[in-house]
Amino acid sequence: MFLWGTATAAYQIEGAADEDGRGPSVWDTFSREPGRTRDGHTGDVACDHYHRWPEDVALLSDLGVNAYRFSLAWPRIQPRGSGPANQKGLDFYDRLVDALLAAGITPVPTLFHWDLPQALEDGGGWLARDTAHRFAEYAALAAERLADRVRMWITLNEPFVHMAYGYAMGVHAPGRALLAGALPAAHHQLLGHGLAVGALRAAGAGQVLITNNCTPVWPASDAEEDRAAARAYDILHNRLFNDPVLLGEYPDLSAYGVGRWDVVRDGDLEVIAAPLDGIGINYYNPTRIAAPSSDGLPFEDAGIPGYPTTAFGWPIVPDGLRELLVRLKDRYGEALPPVYVTENGCSQEDVPGPDGVVDDRGRIAFLERHVEAMERARREGVDVRGYFVWSLLDNFEWAEGYHQRFGLVHVDFATQRRTPKASYAWFRDFLAAGGRSEH
Ligand code: FCB
Fold first, then answer.
1. Who has the most CB within 10 Å: 73, 105, 220, 422?
2. Prior bond to 61 cis, omega within 30?
3. Ligand 1 site, residue 397, Cβ cutoff 6 A
4. Residue 412: beta bridge partners?
5. φ, ψ dihedrals at 281, nearest 5°
6. Does ligand 1 come within 6 angstroms of the Cβ of 112?
7. Given the DSSP bridges, would you call strands 384-390 and 409-412 parallel, antiparallel or unpaired?
8. Which helix H or strand E contains 357, and what residues bound it?
């Protein structure tokens, strides 16, 4: 069955930051520091999904999706990142899973969507190898409770973005700006992934995936310097996270000053390359890369002129999704497991009209054209088995706070009123017309 769904993440929607024994995460800490997020927004309340989840499950059910990707908040399940499970935290996801199953919706939880327990960050976070082992213990606790009903699991969400934004540039939690010093956060996340695959399988999980953020990389020109810079960027953004998982080896990191990588120990790559049942791919836009104009990184982002952009300023390039999927197939061949597009969507300045309607026709066009691009990739032989819209609800968009609206459903953050947008009706009709059964 082809999975058609929507995606969310715990810190972006749940709120209830201090309830039922939840511990602080790096995002609680970071978002409360002055100047870190736009207008100082935090996820303290977010969409109040922790209390309003029955309404949100009803929205999913009316939409007609057959799958829902969400994330488990590690600090709800292990408030300090180690030790026994907080049963109240698990109870929340237990109820959610049961309600989804009762509505005929396949639950697809992600174990880590960036909300590391603060206690683990205090011990070094993903720069510390120990965090990988803690992650596997947490995976086991979650699966022991839920794997009797949850078939499909995702370990990590976008380890590239977490490393780059959280540890290299410091624009996301935990706010560390270490540049190349952030690279160990890649290896330790991947090691955590591999260890978690084993823990999930031991607890009876059916299918296990990782979700990577991937981008087709375009050299700014045919000049060899630009092409070399594009290759270096492709290594950092795509191959650093796909190669070890799918091929059991790291790409050449010498452009980043890494020769023999001392954080990698014997046996780690075998753990990281544990067979998977699928790979999740999040696609938002291609990246155009030029040779660097100053010392430092081996590339420079050249921007993508000539395309329309989302409210976030991200270029809208639907065919980039086809290009990306076909490139993955070309690069990994038989080593590429079935692909699930686990996020795709756009932000818009959605304002309800006087009649209360949110006429987000730009989002409808965006989604239509990206689904078409995915279908072209399938016709070109890529085994794609799912597509999840980011996002069900407008939510806390990390450093942008509540300013970027990605939802099929509008949220008035003052009242928590949910209003399905025109794109929600479009997706519902698309699914009812066979979008969900034609595969
Ligand atoms: C992705 C994140 C997701 C959301 C979208 C817009 O990188 O995984 O949480 O913020 O971008």
1. 73
2. no
3. yes
4. 417
5. -125, 125
6. no
7. unpaired
8. none
Determine whether the shortest distance from the Cβ of 11 to ligand 1 is under 6 A.
no
364, two tokens = 């409808």
**CA separation for the pair 45, 311 (Å, rounded):** 23
For residue 295, the model assigns a pLDDT of 85
Q: Name the residue at shortest CA distance from atom 10 of ligand 1.
A: 397
pLDDT number for residue 12: 99
Give strand pairing partners of 71. 110
On the 0-12 / 13-18 / 19+ scale of CB atoms within 10 A, 28 is buried
> What amino acid positions are annotated as catalytic residues?
158, 343
**Ligand 1 atom nearest residue 211's Cα:** 8
**Closest ligand 1 atom to the C-alpha of 347?**
6
Separation of alpha carbons 274 and 359, rounded Å: 45
Amino acid at the residue 136: A
pLDDT tens-digit readout, 33-75: 999 999 999 999 999 999 999 999 999 999 999 999 999 999 9
| Tokens of residue 319, six digits | 């065919």
pLDDT mean over 369-385: 98
What does each C-alpha distance from 345 to 146, 258, 370 come to in angstroms?
29, 35, 9
| Mutation choice for ligand 1 from 343, 393, 396, CB with most ligand atoms inside 8 A | 343
Nearest to 369 by CA among 316, 328, 431: 316
For the chain, give the number of residues: 439
Tell whether the model's pLDDT for residue 218 goes beyond 50: yes
* CA 267/CA 54 separation, integer angstroms: 45
What 8-state DSSP symbol labels residue 98?
Answer: H
- Mean pLDDT computed over 300-319: 98
Residue to mutate (ligand 1; options 241, 282, 284, 366; most atoms within 8 A of CB):
282
Report field, pTM of the whole predicted structure over 0.85: yes
Ligand 1 contacts CB of residue 66 (under 6 A): no
Q: Using 50, 70 and 90 to split pLDDT, how confident is the model at 261?
A: very high
Return the C-alpha torsion angle 175, 176, 182, 186, nearest 10: -30
| Test site for ligand 1: of 115, 158, 172, 404, most ligand atoms within 8 A of the Cβ | 158
Cβ 263 vs Cβ 244: under 8 Å? no
The neighbouring-strand residues paired with 301 are: 289
Alpha-helical (H) ranges within 103-183 are: 118-122, 130-146, 159-161
213 lines ligand 1 (CB under 6 A): yes
**Residue 42 near residue 56 (C-beta atoms within 8 A):** no
